Amino acid sequence: MPDWILAATAGLLAGGALLVGAVVAWFVQVPARIVAGIMAFGAGVLISALAFDLVLEAQGEGGFWPTVSGFAVGAIVYVIANRLLDRFDQRNPRGRGKDPGTGLGIALGALLDGVPESAVLGLSMVGGGGVSVPVLVAIIISNVPEGLSSTAELKASGRPGGYVFVLWTGIALASALASLAGFVLLDGASGELTAFITALAAGAILAMICDTMIPEAFRSTHALTGLLATAGFLLSYAIHVLG
Asked: pTM, whole model, 2 decimals?
């Protein structure tokens, strides 16, 4: 299989996890505590993946300063974009209020998380390294509960099934394109640039974990949140070491 097809497929798998979560939420009444538990576990997986795969890879590619600057920019951009979405009431801020957010806002929030994650999948293949399995697993595990919780809100707001599934299919395709772009556009780029972009995604992911995943998980799992996140961290670490 050509590498560019593999890169697009990896992004599609990552984005497709959102669609899987959406299908489950639409047809099955999943208890909020189960969704929150998966969310906490996925947060731990992502923290491990960004620490052992993204940041260390960026450091090895471009050195300290591109890694630090990219990480900081990624976190700042995510937080600003997230606050702008809340300010314009594009979606209901997680953990606040009772009304579900709009479909457009939920889609924008998922894209805000998913595009940099998927771009890193493609970027990990530059130079013939192959898809980063720990990062792919981390994204899939974290995307399933996001699709679950977001679709539950859309369903509660009265959105039709056709709208919901076209929405998430579009996001899955956007993830595939982001992964393909990460591979094609950055093939041959300097180590400093690839380090900056990899660290940028890592910073955005960490900000998303702290701002969205962990607070939402804690609302239902409470004291178990830390244990579930630790289990996810250890799983991702084992995949990194043994893989």
From this structure: 0.82
